[in-house]
Amino acid sequence: MEKLKKFFRYDNVGMLFVLLAFLYMLIFVGYPIIRNLILSFQDVNAGNLVRGTKNFILFDNYLELFKDNVLTSSLWNTLRYTVLCLVFQFVIGFVLALFSVKDFRLQSRCAVFC
Q: pLDDT-based confidence at 23, cuts 50/70/90?
């Protein structure tokens, strides 16, 4: 009983919160990632997914993926979208930062009404 009281002292309560967060991430993030990685090396379709009889085909799924032209176009579109979003966010953030630093003539009146 004394060991249990010693463990639940104020110093160790943070460890319990971290443990709960770690378990949450392990269950809801780690397991699906590992499960999908395993499924990517198997021959999976709707029929054998339900039955549970999946054959390992190793890298055949990946070879088929890299032969497809849709992969290159989707990767290119993703890269363009990411770069445009980053540029747009940087410009908006920079403009807002400039406006927050700059003194305006109406700033004293705005403090009364805002």
A: very high
Helix (H) or strand (E) holding 66: helix 60-67
DSSP annotation string for 79-100: HHHHHHHHHHHHHHHHHHHHHH
Beta bridge partners of 55: 43
Helices (H), 1-114: 2-7, 13-25, 31-40, 46-51, 60-67, 69-101, 107-113
B/e letters for 10-39, b = 16+ CB within 10 Å, e = fewer, are eeeeeeeeeeeeeeeeeeeeeeeeeeeeee
Instruction: Tell me the whole-structure pTM to 2 decimals.
Output: 0.58
For 7, 18, 25, 38, 85, the CA distances from 21, given in Å and listed in that order, are 18, 5, 6, 25, 30
The structure tokens listed for 106 are 């109406």
